[in-house]
Amino acid sequence: MNGSAPAPLVEVRGVSVRYGARTAVDDVSLEVRRGEIVAIIGPNGSGKSTLLRAIGRMRKPDGGLVRFDGQDIWRTSSREYARRVAFLPQAPEAPSDLTVEELAWRGRFPHRGLLAAATKGDRTAVETAIEQCGLEALRGRPLATLSGGERQRAWIALALAQEPELLLLDEPTTFLDIGHQQELLQLLCALNASRGLTIVMVMHDIAQAAHCAHRLVAMQGGRLIVDGTPAEVVTAERIGVLFGASVTVLRHPESGAPIVVPATFLRGD
Amino acid sequence: MLTAAPSKRLPPVVTIVAAGGLLLVAMGVAVALGSVRLGPGQVFDGLFDRGDPVARQIVWQLRVPRVLVAALVGANLGLAGVLLQGITRNPLADPHILGFSAGAGLAAIAVLVIAPGTPVQLVAPAAFLGSLASAAVVYALAWRGGISPVRFALSGVAVAALFTALSTAVIATSDLFTQATLSFLAGGLFGRDWSHFKQLWPYTVGAGSLTLLAAGWLNILALGDDMARGLGLRVERARLLLAVLAAVLTGSAVAVSGLLAFIGLVVPHAARLVAGNDYRVVMPLAAILGAALLVVADTFARVALAPTELPVGIVTAVVGAPAFLLLVRTRT
């Protein structure tokens, strides 16, 4: 105990990303500590995904810098970064006849040479990933034959096979029905709890974000405007201003987590 | 629940060894058949460049090099087809459709028609350079801070159309329309000998081995650019290297054979049908199947109407088109 707080795992310092004349992310700073789940929320076009891409080394910032474990991420190779950080885009694509197991094996790419035979470590990583995502029975199935929720778990298995310390997800629940959304968030929470996996994800649904994440950061017009616990961020006033909506915030009867509902009924009965 | 999803595929080694055996059989049959009927003993002796001088001449100086050239050209086009379908993530891509060979046609015709006095030996290098040039044009047109697979495919189709039109224009406006021009456009292996083999094999071996080494990249590119980047692949660099390999394989092949359609399109599908999704298996299999397909097609071209020869490009198109349709219909 020397009194200093542990260094953050991710450090975003004054990052700006521009697409032509448009500034998608504007001077954003953010820290993520090891073992945290952070959800990025905000209206469409607020720069959430672009910020995630900057953290994921998908897009070099036009200003500022991103550090991972104390090091500028653009000073490490993409391969080295891929061994520690996994990124799942919003709608990843794959050949439809690729099987779950084949997909999970792709996650070993950053750890293997082009010609290297699979090691015991590779096999263990893939097996563990498949098991943790509950895909043992589906391992030989082509992706095209899976439900949306199963397919999303298969992609998570690929990410886990990378054995990352940080998992970045872009709206992982968007195309799922409510049952599969819950299942997926439970899986992410379990991974966070069991192996201390740090997770940063862009979320569309505020209630889900509030339920799952330790911290919410809200973006608007490319700027990060709020950063705090779900209870701090999800208030009727803040959400109303953020999304330009008129909302009421209720409390979940069991967990006390905030739930956002429209303030007025539009349908007159 | 292991029985729920039985793996119908043979182990990769078995598949590749079996395909290799098939290729050897096809090559053996190809050497044995021809417009001149030879006995098995004569063919066998000929393979060791001995025995009856006439048979020896036919087997060792005519058939063997031609079969080998057919195998190399087929392997090159099969590999190039897998590369281009992988880079563009488009099952309809092939060196012909994406304009990689269009420049070869234009360059060869320009040499043959505009400067008829040019020695025939210069046609091949011209075609090779033309092919590389058209590939470079396709790549440059598709570049906008990066290559998008769709833009790549569309640029390729446009360049193919443009170069083909230019070739036709050169032919149409020239009185010096020659047999050589036509046979280059139709694609054929008539009269290909040891000199062509010597010209081609370094490219097949060199670019071919690099392609097999890089096949794993295509597995990752198949997951989309974002995912590939996230897995640590330097996407633009990988795609450029793979495209260069496709251009070299295509250019060196069409410089020897003329414009052969369909091999590069059909073979990757056949290889994937047998070997599945792993490009590290698909790639060598496509080389072997491409070689076997062209050896068989060329043998057919030689003997079907013997002593007249069909251009093998016609055979590959006539056989390839229905085969391709059959593949498409049974797969989807």
Mean pLDDT of chain B: 85
CATH class of chain A: Alpha Beta
Radius of gyration of chain B: 20 Å
Instruction: Please name the CATH topology of chain B.
Output: ABC transporter involved in vitamin B12 uptake, BtuC
CATH architecture of chain B: Orthogonal Bundle
The CATH topology of chain A corresponds to Rossmann fold
- Give the helix tally of chain A: 9
The percent of residues in helical segments of chain B reads over 70%
Task: Describe this protein's structure.
The complex is a heterodimer of chains A (269) and B (332). In chain A, the strands form three sheets. In chain A, strands 6-7-8-3-9-10 form a six-stranded mixed beta sheet, sandwiched between helices. By secondary structure, chain A is of the alpha/beta class. Chain A is 32% helix and 26% strand. With 332 residues, chain B is mainly α. Chain B has 13 helices and no strands. The longest helix of chain B is centred in the N-terminal third of the chain and has 36 residues. At the A-B interface, helix 2 and strand 6 of A face helix 8 and helix 9 of B.
Q: Topology, please?
A:
The complex is a heterodimer of chains A (269) and B (332).
Chain A: E1 10-19, E2 22-32, E3 37-41, H1 48-55, E4 63-68, E5 71-72, H2 78-84, E6 85-88, H3 100-106, H4 120-132, H5 148-161, E7 166-170, H6 178-195, E8 198-202, H7 206-212, E9 215-220, E10 223-228, H8 230-233, H9 236-243, E11 247-251, E12 258-262
Parallel strand pairs in A: 3-8, 3-9, 6-7, 7-8
Antiparallel strand pairs in A: 1-2, 1-4, 4-5, 9-10, 11-12
Chain B: H1 12-32, H2 40-47, H3 53-88, H4 102-114, H5 123-142, H6 149-172, H7 179-186, H8 194-221, H9 225-230, H10 235-257, H11 263-275, H12 279-303, H13 312-331
Helix pairs in contact in B: 1-3, 1-12, 2-3, 3-8, 3-10, 3-11, 3-12, 4-5, 4-6, 4-7, 5-6, 5-10, 8-10, 8-12, 11-12, 11-13, 12-13
